[in-house]
Design the sequence.
């Protein structure tokens, strides 16, 4: 009877050790892919710290790992993400650099290609807080807010529909004094 109990204890220890070993060495990537999550190696790279990553096929991703939706609610996991304060010198070479002051946006227009991943930075060049928003509700998630002298960035997918898209500062009185501009999608 004692030998039988010892045998069952040994078998139990071996089974538990085997389960622990398998759990520690298992590759769960196939499981996470099936559940809709992406592995870090599939995501690509983040062009500006704090902004959305860009996939290897050139699509901007939300924090949920899916293609970012420009019409999502601002700041949600499916929307393009704004960075914290950044140094303009650290931005990628092809960044659309926009400055804003009480005089307006400079430049007050820029061009981009349809469907392209765009890195946009906004810098307040005065002692005011400013913002960048598009008038088109299909771009409502593409927004940046900056404090005095601050630069922030966002990475987003340009619309696939060619045309002109108005942007503006949504702080009271700023749009009325000329803080408006145009993105031209070719």
Sequence:
């Amino acid at each position: 009877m004692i030998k039988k109990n010892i045998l069952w204890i040994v078998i139990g220890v071996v089974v538990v050790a085997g389960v622990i070993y398998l759990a520690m060495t298992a590759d769960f990537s196939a499981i996470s892919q099936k559940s809709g999550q992406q592995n870090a190696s599939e995501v690509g790279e983040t062009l500006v710290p704090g902004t959305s990553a860009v996939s290897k096929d050139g699509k901007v991703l939300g924090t949920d790992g899916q293609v970012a939706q420009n019409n999502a609610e601002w700041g949600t996991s499916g929307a393009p993400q704004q960075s914290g304060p950044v140094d303009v010198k650290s931005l990628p070479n092809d960044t659309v650099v926009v400055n804003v002051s009480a005089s307006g946006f400079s430049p007050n227009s820029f061009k981009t290609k349809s469907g392209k991943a765009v890195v946009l930075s906004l810098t307040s060049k005065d002692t005011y807080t400013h913002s960048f928003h598009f008038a088109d509700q299909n771009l409502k998630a593409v927004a940046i807010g900056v404090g005095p002298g601050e630069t922030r960035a966002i990475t987003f997918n340009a619309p696939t529909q060619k045309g002109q898209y108005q942007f503006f500062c949504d702080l009271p009185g700023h749009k009325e004094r000329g803080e408006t501009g145009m993105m031209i999608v070719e």
Q: What stands out?
A: Helices lie at 2-25, 29-34, 40-43. The chain has three helices and eleven strands. Confidence is low (pLDDT under 50) at residues 21-41. The longest strand covers residues 117-124.
